[in-house]
Design goal:
The protein has 234 residues and is an alpha/beta fold. It has one domain (5-232): Rossmann fold (3-Layer(aba) Sandwich). The protein has helices at 43-51, 73-78, 96-106, 113-121, 123-126, 138-151, 168-183, 196-202, 226-232; strands at 5-14, 17-27, 32-36, 58-63, 66-67, 81-84, 156-160, 188-192, 205-210, 213-219. A hairpin with a 2-residue loop joins strand 9 (205-210) and strand 10. Helix 4 (113-121) runs antiparallel to helix 6. The protein binds adenosine-5'-triphosphate. Adenosine-5'-triphosphate (ATP) binds at residues 14, 17, 19, 37, 39-45.
Length: 234
């Protein structure tokens, strides 16, 4: 079986400032892989490069057997890569329902049932369909951001710190949703996450980025090693 996502030798830079020097990450179908590392090591840069938001300077990105390295972001989304960027981005002036609808209209399938499927994962949003996204709490906005990605019916979810700065009760709901999407619905997940306990519960594997490359990789169990913890310490 070929991997769902295979990233090899990925390099990225902002002008002359090089951030990634050759990152390799593989996500097998149906598994949850976590990307970790201290602040500013380039985790967001990695996800943006994988999605084509940022053009990598070298390397290859293969999604479900197809080389997508040169495809625009929307073509990657069409092929089943669902992206939830850092900072729970939504359209603040639109209602929850409108946020989901514009995503559906931009999707390839345009099947309205996808909105109900996404709401089923986050029932709390069902009570807020008429509310403007800008008036939701941070945690609810994060749920909406994930729900929007789900409306495209992705085969893989790419999530950038979905629990960052979010109240604990909603963090638990978001964790449960990610777990269900991965374990029950079989979605592959690539997750940037600093919350170690959550990673220990959900991840099949991890990579730690340092110095622009993968410094350590292993199973969730290996995250308990003292030297791994040292690589994560701020
Ligand atoms: N648009 C940009 N222009 C120039 N430099 C940038 C830009 N975005 C990020 N950087 C720099 O690239 C490096 C990696 O940033 P990135 O956001 O990818 O790290 P990160 O690991 O995701 O950090 P955090 O955990 O704080 O989100 C940092 O030194 C950052 O200052």
């Amino acid at each position: 079986m070929s991997p769902m996502l295979e990233v090899t030798g990925l390099q990225a830079a902002y002008g002359r400032a090089r951030v990634l020097f050759g990152v390799d990450v593989t996500v097998e179908a149906g598994t949850l892989m976590c990307v970790m590392g201290r602040n500013g090591v380039g985790k967001t840069t990695l996800l943006n490069s994988i999605m084509g938001v940022l053009a990598p300077t070298a390397g290859k990105i293969v999604f479900d057997g197809e080389d997508v390295t040169r495809l625009p972001t929307y073509e990657r989304v069409r092929r089943g890569m669902g992206y939830v960027p850092q900072g729970h981005e939504t359209f603040p002036q639109l209602t929850v329902a409108e946020n989901l609808r514009v995503t559906l209209e931009a999707s390839r399938h345009k099947d309205r049932a996808a909105i109900d499927e996404a709401l089923e994962v986050f029932p709390r949003l069902t009570e807020m369909l008429g509310r403007k996204a800008g008036f939701l709490s941070g945690g609810q906005q994060q749920q909406l951001a994930i729900a929007r990605a789900l409306v495209t019916r992705p085969r893989m979810l790419i999530l950038d710190e979905p629990t960052e700065g979010i109240q604990p009760s909603i963090v638990a709901e978001i964790e449960a949703a990610i777990e269900r999407l991965n374990k029950e619905k079989g979605l592959a997940v690539l997750l940037v996450e600093q919350y170690l306990e959550l990673v220990l519960r959900l991840a099949d594997g991890f990579v730690i980025i340092e110095g622009g490359a993968v410094r350590r990789a292993g199973t969730a169990e290996d995250l308990r090693d003292a030297d791994v913890k040292r690589l994560l310490a701020v």
